[in-house]
Amino acid sequence: MAPSAPTAVPGGRPGDAAREALRAARRQAVRAEAVAPRSEGGRELRARGEARDARHASGTPPTAPAPGQDSRSTRIKAAQDMRHHLASAFRMPSGSDAPEEGPGSTGTTGDSTNPAEPHSTTPAPAVAHAPPTMATPHRDTELRRTFPAFAPREAADGAPFATTWWGNAWTEALEQSALDPKRLTRGRGYADQGHVDAITATPGLVLAYVRGSRPRPYRVQLRLRTLTDEDWVHFLDAAADRPGHIAALLDKELPRSLAGCGAPLLPAPGDLTAHCSCPDSGHPCKHAAALCYQTARLLDADPFVLLLLRGRGEGDLLDALARRSAARAARTARGQRPDALPGIRATDALAPRRLPELPEPLPEPPHADQPPVYPAAPGGPDSFTLDQLATDAAARAHALLGTGRDPVGELTLWQDAVRLAAARPGSGLTATTRSLYSTLAAAVGRTPADLARGVAAWRQGGLEGLAVLDEPWDPPAGRFDRARPSLRAAGLPAFRPWCNRLTHLGGHIQLRLGRDGLWYAYESEPGQDDWWPRGTPDLEPVGALTGLLAPGDA
Question: Which of 10, 27, 390, 456 stands 20 to 30 A from 220 (CA)?
Fold first, then answer.
């Protein structure tokens, strides 16, 4: 008689179903030895009895036995069914409780057909109910925490496995002591694919079941040394000294300064000891590497898990930090004494008093001193420019000390740049002044040629001469209208008016009336609109043109 398949007990463990199957197989073997076949007819009767018992156990309606079938084929078929059931009993739990397809089955609910028995059917063996996980979160306490399995994720080539610096420090402790990088690569792939079941963390131990190439999962442990009492004193002192450390821990972050406080929170290479139920003797095996990588993801989400592995639970640790912080605050309050308030009494402040006389001011220096000589250095500022700026600052300070005002301070940036350039002796852009002109022009957004034209206007009439250069304006009737008859009376040709300007018809002489009432002469190449200040300003237009007109211009 074929052994009946063990009935799956809902909520039972895989080991219970396996033991029941072994008992059924042993009973069948005892019956086979007790009843030996004595003739062909006896064997036929025994085969019929075994088939009847099998149908009775499985609920299959009676069918006629196939010709030529003997008890040997029946026992072989029963042994095959038993091996398949035992293999399924130790398979890793999956998300579905449906039985897997066994050898010779055509589907999850279909019947398997034996070629030797074309007219008989045998139901698929029953599979014991498997729990959704092998973890026991109902047993969790302050020093035992169980975390559900992580979902699979896509592997990022070349990127660190963890997202925090302390998570990567955890994986580096195992990678630096590993003997076979290939096992680490396969273990990381197992972690990415979600082969690691729920993780249980206790002081000094990380435990999980990892699915490998065999049906039964492997039991993997990672051991880590717990901290001593002295180490915890260093850690609590460092955390209580800075309130920001406690706030960071509550925000699920681990500051680097707290990790290096003298207590070895993070493991060093060789501190992690792996144990696995697989036959691989590598250090570590791929299952232990998968658990290590998955634990790094757990530390990313909650650094208190690292403190639990070192020996202290989250609640106990926070209570200790609160007590230590309160004790320190109390000692500080007892040791402090109220300081005397700064200041003076109100009666003393309101009492009449006579202030001492101010000392006499120092005599005004006769002139501004010369600045020191600035040496030229490769890559440094231009010594000539520094000397120019220092000399100008000394002159302005001397004028302010004597008169109480600084007219230069009212200038615009462009006007001050022109003034500085005009203070340099010489005319035009020479080799000695080109660097100064370039620096000043770049500072005001102009070209060195514009700065040179402004210097000529400044030297012609100062600040008002620069205004005549830049600003055309409409003068009132009077002196400007009498200028053209005055020029004609002096025998000069006619001038064309525009705004405050009178331009010679030949195109190379121009007169400009300033707001100060003076006439400023300008000169340009014939046919070119490139006017440069010339001569000295004068109250009369004829006087301003003295020495500028050629004999043929009249």
Answer: 10
R_g over Cα of the chain: 52
What would the two tokens of residue 322 be? 């609160």
Higher pLDDT, 326 or 93: 326
Distance CA 102, CA 111 (A): 11
The label of the residue with tokens 């060093």 reads: 268
Least confident of 88-92, 204-208, 400-404: 88-92
Q: Cα dihedral sign for 55, 56, 58, 62?
A: positive
Tokens of 423: 């203070």
- Average pLDDT on 359-375 reads 80
Instruction: Decide if 289 contacts 187 (C-beta within 8 A).
Output: yes
Task: Say how far apart CA 241 and CA 137 lie, in whole Å.
Answer: 36
Nearest C-alpha neighbor of 430 from the set 398, 410, 452? 452
What is residue 408's predicted lDDT score, i.e. its pLDDT? 76
Instruction: Give the list of residues 6+ apart from residue 370 with CB closer than 8 angstroms, or none.
Output: 391, 394
Identity at 82, one-letter amino acid code: M
10 Å CB burial of residue 104 (0-12, 13-18, 19+) is middle
Q: What contacts 24+ positions apart, CB below 8 Å, involve 528-532?
A: 532/453, 532/456
Q: What percent of the chain has pLDDT over 70?
A: 73
Output the DSSP codes for 247-279: HHHHTT---HHHHTSSS--SPPTT--EEEESSS
Query: Are 540 and 486 spatial neighbours (Cβ–Cβ below 8 Å)?
Result: yes
CB 444 within 8 A of CB 417: yes
C-alpha span between 338 and 347 (Å, rounded): 23
Closest CA to 502 of 491, 511, 493, 494: 511
In this prediction, residue 95 carries a pLDDT of: 37
Mean pLDDT confidence for 269-296: 89
- CA quadruple 238, 243, 249, 254: dihedral positive or negative? negative
Q: Which of 278, 154, 309 is closest to 209 using CA atoms?
A: 278
CA atoms lying within 13 Å on the CB side of residue 374? 17
pLDDT in tens, 89-127: 444 444 333 333 333 333 333 333 333 334 434 444 444
Residue 535, phi-psi category: left (phi > 0), alpha (psi -120 to 50), beta (remainder): left
Predicted local confidence at residue 533, as pLDDT: 92
pTM recorded for the entire structure: 0.40
